[in-house]
Design brief:
This protein is an alpha+beta fold.
Length: 112
């Protein structure tokens, strides 16, 4: 699938090479509007990537999974095998921090 857009694939490979063997932060903001009131939260997570060699990078990019994803990986997919450690919000790394969202909905008066 990555051959369909070689520029996107090369960009994904570059991002993943930058993450390889390092810890990075994932920041995810969420807001809830209720009438005139707005409630907002920021989820901060840390992800430690294993060191990846060229063959691992090429194989993962060739799956097409990293294309179109912020950070060029999906923690819920095959890239989970590259995550040595994470702290913070798993759902925030995926895209919507559920704990923070639930807290904001409660602040806005929704009960569930």
């Amino acid at each position: 699938r990555s051959s369909a857009n070689p520029l996107a694939a090369e960009r994904a490979r570059h991002i993943l090479a930058q993450l390889s063997g390092r810890v990075h932060r994932v920041l995810t903001a969420v807001a809830v509007q209720s009438g005139e009131q707005r409630f907002a939260a920021l989820s901060v997570s840390h992800v430690s990537f294993a060191a990846l060699d060229a063959a691992q990078l090429d194989a993962y990019v060739a799956t097409g999974e990293p294309l179109g994803k912020a950070g060029a990986y999906g923690i819920q997919g095959a890239a989970a095998a590259f995550i040595a450690h994470m702290s913070g919000s798993y759902s925030g790394i995926m895209g919507l921090p559920l704990y923070e969202t639930a807290q904001l909905l409660r602040q806005a008066g929704l009960r569930f």
